[in-house]
User: Fold these one by one.
Assistant:
Number 1:
Amino acid sequence: MSLNYAVQMRTHPRRHQSGMSLVELLVGVTVGLFVVAAASTLLAMQLTDNRRLMLETQIQQDLRASADIIGRELRRAGAWGTAVESVQSVWRADQGSVQTVNALVSPTAAPSDTVTFQSSRTTGQPNYGFRLLTGGIETQLNTSTGLVWQELTDRSTMLVRRFVVTPINEPGGQLVCQKLCVVGSTLTKSCWPTTMVRSFRIEIDAEAVSDSSVKRSVDTRVRLRNDRVRFDPALPQSCPT
């Protein structure tokens, strides 16, 4: 190696070096950790929102299904399968008894967390009902052993905090008897029976068992298909003969 070349190597060091310094490595690691932390936070938020959305959807579907079942069954209250042929028909002007045996529905006026009614669509004891008990709605059914209460809602996934059935009674029309009533010395229609149109407001509030912040409610109204026949209590409870 010549003397001139050695001098040039000492006076002109290599200016282009490969790799990165320790400071650059630490800065890169720090930036990467921030990116990973931000991505993890975003993923956790998305998973939480997705879980909450699934809970809200489940609670809403369960509430709607329960309200639909209650409304469908309650709408049949007072049904009398042989109303046309039977002597205990809902209304026949030539008979003294005009009230179906299945007409009574409880509650009749005040709101309640229990509703019971009758229907003749099945044999045996024609009693049905729904009630709120320890965070769940139960339904009363006929079985081979008699009347039993069974769960309608699943307490392991949904807690029902409020179940209220409110009667809504509205005046209907007047039924026609074959004869007028004799009140004192006056002939009048005052003893002719009238009908009462019956509806019920169903309100249910519930929350998810696994997350009490997930709350949903449903509010629906059901009209009974069978109006109730009413007489003036101060007058005879039948058409004049």
Number 2:
Amino acid sequence: MASASDASFTAHEKVVVTEDLPGVPAGTSGKVMLRTGLSWIRYRVHFDNGVEVPWLEAAQLCRLKEYEPSA
């Protein structure tokens, strides 16, 4: 699985969550709606299953085109 711990995502970028979250299983794709923070960057993501999650860190996400599901 791709790691995005040093990545920076922009608004409207397609991403995939890399770990299970409440209401959002790992591997669910979504779109970054907002990037916020100065020294601690967080993202608000609207997922394809209808759940919107605020305060995600880059380590919890990867770009859609870089996602490789774990076997």
Number 3:
Amino acid sequence: MNETPNNPKNILVVDDIPENIDILKEILRGEYTVKAATRGGKALDIARTTPIDLILLDVMMPEMDGYEVCRTLKEDEATRNIPVIFVTALGDAVDEAKGFETGAVDYLTKPVSAPVVQARVRTHLALKDAQEQLREWNANLKKRLLQSVATIREKSQALMSVDERSPKLRGYIHLVELLSGIFELMGGRYGAHARTVGELAGDAARKMGLDAETVARIRLAGLLHDVGNLDTAGNAAERGTGELAAGAQDEQRLHPVRAQELFDQLEELHDVGLMVRGHHEAYNGSGYPDGLKEDAIPLGARLVTI
């Protein structure tokens, strides 16, 4: 999130020479709230007790140099995620490498350039925001996955026949629910399309009076019918076939074969693999990849296609 006049980012400038602090304050004035420290220990106290978004840190300081300050920040759970940019007169590559080894994200040499300082600060604040959002998303991932699976299980249980609730099929049902939850987290057209096809194909099979195990297998085939597209650049399932170049179309037409190869690794899912392989076959024989027609197309594949 970008800083705003009502909610400016907090920048901590650390340098044992007050004049250097004043230069950086002037460069950052009006856009950020700038705090300052002339000693490493004081900088650590401020970082631990005040919300700091980024630190501009001198290297050569008495008592505790910048390398030690940075290393200490990165060892503390409360401060390790604060980006540190070294601002120093040391321009040797060895010094720069040492700065990165201690955990700094960037390295500026004195005398500083105002536009460069502003650009680097802006860039690393944006990266920090993105990383915080990613950490938050990851922290909630397990909770969201369990909630999604629980919701799908509740809806599925309401539609299942007595036979489908039997212990024999419980593994299939849980597998489908888990994968459905994962696709829901993926979002986008692929996830919604996969879940919809799986549910509709399963419901059609159930209404035809097919046995519970066949219903479960057809539902799984519907859910995973386009899994062979996941390894193609740009995910062809997200684009219309008309948007693809001829070579890409040929590659995309192989996705049922790639998907079947995945299922063939498990003998008990061989028939599900055949359903997935055949979901682009056409009743008149004009489909792909095998040009099957009529009853030669597995029933599950026909239901998925519909």
Number 4:
Amino acid sequence: PMASGDVMSERGRFKHGQRVHSLSAMRDGPTSAGSEFPASFEEELADSRTPVPDQVAFRIDFGDWLGGLTRRDRAMVEQLASGQRPGEVARRMHVSSAAVSQRRALWRESWGTLMGEPVTA
């Protein structure tokens, strides 16, 4: 049996109130309200030059950030991140290109705030 202090043991997770999620489970669908990581981003993130701890931290942070967005905003972010042009996203989401541009500025600011980066004009 695993020690109760080991985060991988069921008893340890219960004792410390922790949860463990595999990255593949996060790809298959949301595991909690703030842990959504779209499968569509996996190919873009497959980069052997980035240290694994940095990859994991990004997946967690980005999933949390996406989880804080509305469903509509999440859909727009995912479409833009998959390489679709802002005009295509605007048409698909029934908004103006200006609205997509404004949302992008807000998303950039909120991501920067989450990452502790100074907000610049």
